[in-house]
Amino acid sequence: MRAITAFDTRDGLMAAASRRVSEALVLGIQARGSACAALSGGQTPEPAYRRLAHESVDWTRVTFALVDERFVQVDHPFSNEGMLRRSLRGAIGSGAALSPMFSPERTLEEAADLADAAYGALHFDVALLGMGADGHTASWFPGASGLAAAMDPASPRSVVAVRAPQAAGASERLTLTLAAIARADRVLLVITGEEKRSLLERAVDEPVTALFNSLPRPLEVLWAP
Ligand code: 6PG
User: Of all helices (H) and strands (E), which one includes residue 224?
Assistant: First the structure.
């Protein structure tokens, strides 16, 4: 049985996720003078990000990174960067930086190389992941082209390009590699609903299982109905 911390309400879950990210950032600032959180897109964690922007953190010392990105312009409704900029407006307005994965006027592979160079230099104090109903996490979609490179635990890359025809929002994606997520000091998986919980409990070959099997420290799973 995989350890899952259950909350009675989504509000409680979002408050706990926000608190864990802010705690990790504060610890990172104490240890290194600056801190970085890698944050997923999708719909589930947005309320946690809105709360996070109001936590007591020295935002001038924080960089937000993305766990994955849809290959669309930032003002596109499906852009994860756009969602982060809106939900974290308070923190960014108080001095937090955001390191984009997307680059305009570049091919997907060029953008992956640029993001890889930038992200390779980041220390992730915390990474917050979601999970789709097919068992993907980050942009590690089952059957996607680029999946093996994304999930190679020995990959020297932090960011790779992925093409996943079934992916919601955009089939062309940029994603953190498993190797990059394994570097994070703390990894949270934030999910909601019975369907995702039972999928997670029975998952064997789905990409999300790599988080249980390949991280150097335990994955923290937070769930609410
Ligand atoms: C994305 C994601 C992705 C997401 C899951 C869950 O850009 O699509 O980062 O990995 O976390 O698909 O998405 P929901 O929270 O919307 O269900």
Answer: strand 220-224
pLDDT digits (tens, 9 = 90+) for 43-83: 999 999 999 999 999 999 999 999 999 999 999 999 999 99
Q: How far is the CA of 113 from the centre of ligand 1 (A)?
A: 22
CA-CA distance, 86 to 190, in Å (whole number)? 20
Q: Which residues of 75-95 are buried (b: 16+ CB within 10 A; e: fewer)?
A: eeeebbbbbbbebbeebbeee
Atom 12 (ligand 1) nearest CA? 132
Distance 136 CA to ligand 1 centre (A): 8
**Ligand 1 midpoint to CA 20 (Å):** 19
Residue carrying structure tokens 């570049």 = 106
pLDDT band of 169, cuts 50, 70, 90: confident
Tell me how far CA of residue 168 lies from CA of 42, 80, 103, 172, in angstroms: 9, 12, 20, 10
